[in-house]
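Can't paste images in this forum, so I'm doing it all in text. The chain is below; anyone willing to post the predicted structure tokens underneath?
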Amino acid sequence: MRTFGRWLAGSIMAMAAAGLATPSQSATAPDDASFRALLKEMVETDSSVESGSCTAVTEKVAARMKAAGFPEQNLHLFVPEGDPKAGILVAVYPGRDPKLKAVLMLGHVDVVNARRADWTRDPYAFIEENGYYYGRGVADMKAQDAIWVDNLLRFQAEKYKPLRTIKMALTCGEEGGGFVNGARWLVDNQKALVDAGLALNEGGYGELDEKGTPIDQQFQAAQKVVMQFTLETTNPGGHSSVPRPDNAIYSLARALDRLSRYDFPVQFIDANKAYFTRMASVVGGEKGKAMTAIVANPQDKAASDLLNTSPAHHSMLRTTCVATLLSAGHAANALPQRATATVNCRVMPGVPTEEVLATLVKVVDDPEVKVTASRGYRPANPAPVTDKILAPAARVSQQIWPNIPVVPYLATGATDAVSLNAAGIPTYGVSGLFRDPDGNGVHGLNERLRVRSVMEGRQFLYGLVKAYADQKD
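Text version of the structure:
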């Protein structure tokens, strides 16, 4: 297998030698007005668990696709039993060779709750202002959802004949909080319909600097696994006027203090190793040298200490566990009989629950503190990072953003890729949507994306899906 640097350089040279045209130079003239209308409809259809419905979104998208001439028999709407608002849409665009595995475009349409009183603008109004699109879900992830729909409509209008079948699954429940998880429902109930050799999902974003200049485009090649643990101490208790040396709250507090000062060891897999290797030259300076050093020697404490000053880099290098919830005591004038803490862990792929549990027990180092595993997602090894996967992304990206590197990375959070990877569908996060350093209000207030970023991302994903769909092997 070639190194990351060699395949990137080679793909750029091959692109130049072939004289490839950019998507904007192709015969197809993108209909920006229709795409904007689609995105507006999706954003303005509330799909939060608190006040909205995914079913409303997927039904509107299906109706729009049917009206645009997409064959009705290739549109599949599902509503999971017991959750009428968790509607799912799967669309299929047949390829020329049914023996080749499909390309799947995956996206969730549910959004995090948003309240009008907290926002500067109506969160469920699609507003263009000062070069940005505003609205709940614009960045996470209805812009990419709209691009997936737009791709299929453009392919249909062009009478494009891909080698591989192209599929789209718009699902619900990725954000949690009440909806049935649609990605998991599909692999459990409609696996054949969504089965694919490659799935493209959210998670890989471009990074902009403070001036809006692109820095790099991230290609999410892996993501951590979520595991949850409970720390619990119990005690006979008693009257608060007669304190005793053993106290459930104090025992738990000491255990959490020890946990707060513990760092799991540095661990490399393809995704984060490629990230730190490639970003060393982009970042430069002392931090860039530290990136090179930590790849060469994961036990380099000086390099680790410097990189740990960035919470993102700290988390990409290792498993992390952090206390997120506390509960203790039963009365203000009584000694506590019970104290519990929820510890949320983001675990490196391939590490079993039992190993993390054993580490926590060792770090807590107190037999009076009971440590139990309470939650975990399906274990799955990350999808492979290969030339076949990365080269098309680098090639198409260079057509739009010359000299901006495509960088594999390990996501510290989790997406619906967890369910698909576990079902044997290799899933990668890539979008071409560039975000500002502040994160653009994702899961927060005044969510937004630059108009230019959305339109360039549309251009990128149109070319990328075609590139994968026409791969012979």
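The first helix runs from residue 4 to 18. The chain has a mean pLDDT of 91.
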